[in-house]
Specification:
The protein is mainly β. It contains one helix and six strands. It has one domain.
Length: 96
Amino acid sequence: MDAKNPMIEKYELIKEIHYIFDNDVPKIKGRIYKILLGANAQYTWEINYYCRLANEVTVYTPSAPFADSETAIQSLLDKYVKRFENAVDWVENENY
């Protein structure tokens, strides 16, 4: 019998990292997940805020936060978080 509501994605939380900045930047929290079922990549990340740099019209939301190793996904998350050092605006991620 086919499932009425089949599971299509499953993630395991690997780690949560808190990033603290000086001045008005809120505490940034990043999460790294191992993908157990779903996307083709093995890892993904999410963040509690997105930011905008002075030369951008709106906040930048990464379209493909995926990688095939924990080291690679950690690097992608850290690279995005580094943007907050020069951010002029930020928006809370409502899906976090």
